[in-house]
Amino acid sequence: MESPVELTRSQVPKNHYDLIASIYDFQRFGCRCGSILNEVELNIARRLVARDCKVLDVGTGTGRFAATLAGASSTTVAVDSSSRMISISAARGDQSDSPRQVSYIVGDGASLPFSAGSFDAVISVKVLSHFSNIDPFVSEMSRVLRRRGQLIIDISNPLAELYRHFFRNPSVQSYEDHFHTLPEVKRVFQTNSIEISRRVTYSVLPLSLVHFALCPHPDVIPTNLLRSVIGTNRGLLTFVEGIKLK
Q1: Phi and psi for 226 in degrees, rounded to 5?
Q2: What are the chain's domains?
Q3: Per-residue pLDDT at 99
Q4: What per-residue confidence (pLDDT) applies to 32?
Q5: Which residues touch 220 (CB under 8 Å, ≥6 apart)?
Q6: Of 6, 126, 134, 228, which cross-links 2 as Cys (Cβ 3.0–4.6 Å)?
């Protein structure tokens, strides 16, 4: 039986995202800069995740990564604690052109319902920032990875906690944010026998600043300029790839 602390950790984000599941994508990706951000992040995931492998997407949300990776993966499984999010993910998967299907499962990222070593790659984006303690989640993702498997997550940029007080998009209803630095992530990875092997950065400016100052002005800031700002490979935002050593 779950302890009260575990229940709070896993259930509160679930309730939040159950409520906003139907508007989640529109809030984040409905504008010019959001659409470009989505495109950039999906392209990074395609480049990082090895082809023809068994992939697990933890905290899949509306399933954008699972649907994108399914075409190049032998098996794709998507997990989220929100049943509403999983329903939307499954609907998106049904509309995908990929001949390979995604399996959608309601589950807790801190207690994954899979045997040890079940996957070649695990990806988890926009998930760990919801929790102050990421150790249980990284531990579980490491457990279900095979030896030499990939773990891919995103991490906060070093200025995020500072600039959120000045630039915050009120239309995006996000669960609480915790900003985990690269040294912290590296420590947690090492504890779970994972070594950082690659980092990919993007967006030279804070996304909230891009949204407020650049995105609403297409006559002054054309879309190709927005794409350059967000798609740059020297940016503030980061995807990290770790390799499980044992």
Answers
A1: -60, -40
A2: 4-244 (3.40.50.150)
A3: 57
A4: 97
A5: none
A6: 6
